[in-house]
Write a structure and sequence with these properties.
With 172 residues, this protein is of the alpha+beta class. It is 31% helix and 33% strand. The protein has a five-stranded antiparallel β-sheet with strand order 1-2-10-5-8, with no helix packed on it.
Length: 172
């Protein structure tokens, strides 16, 4: 996939075709690069914080690092606390300069390249106030786009609505 190699090597972010497929393919290519990191690691450490009904995730990303994020099930706030980054999503390509904030749409997946050192913060709903990161991942993250589409379809289901009300009631 030549386009993804360009993403790593220069500022040419032109994609042709299905951007979802390109992001998934690019992520797979990155995982196969010698020295690639997946998940929490010493190069891009994560900090997890908790507040009543909220989970806050902060990541440090060093200059030059290329990262592909996960697919989030819910709309949520993001804060680029410091740094400059080029970001590719289904919405297109943009350069962000921190400090800035944005709301990510549900189902968003990003590929980014850190132009400078970055600190990026996301805030997610945590209706059960769990501190178990595996449980939080299941609440917040879809493993793939198919899983996200299934989640969206079930979200309108009456059982899901009742479950949400029960969780809210138990969380009060």
């Amino acid at each position: 996939m030549e386009d993804s190699k360009e993403l790593v090597s220069n500022n040419n972010f032109s994609y042709k075709g299905d951007i979802r497929k390109e992001l998934i393919n690019f992520e797979q290519e990155l995982k196969n690069v010698d020295g690639a990191y997946v998940g929490d690691n010493e190069v891009c450490p994560l900090k997890h914080s908790f507040s009543d009904g909220m989970y806050v995730r902060e990541i440090f990303i060093p200059k030059g690092m290329v990262v592909v994020g996960k697919i989030h099930k819910h709309q949520h706030p993001n804060f680029l606390m410091k740094g400059t980054v080029d970001v590719v999503t289904e919405e297109g390509v943009e350069r962000l300069v921190g400090p800035t904030s944005m709301i990510s749409k549900a189902g968003t997946k990003r590929a980014l390249r850190a132009i400078t050192d970055l600190t990026w913060v996301t805030v997610h709903s945590n209706p059960t106030n769990t501190r178990d990161l595996e449980k939080l991942e299941k609440l917040v993250i879809a493993e793939n786009y198919e899983g996200y589409e299934k989640f969206v379809a079930l979200k309108g289901n009456w059982k899901t609505k009742i479950k949400g009300k029960i969780i809210k009631f138990l969380s009060e």
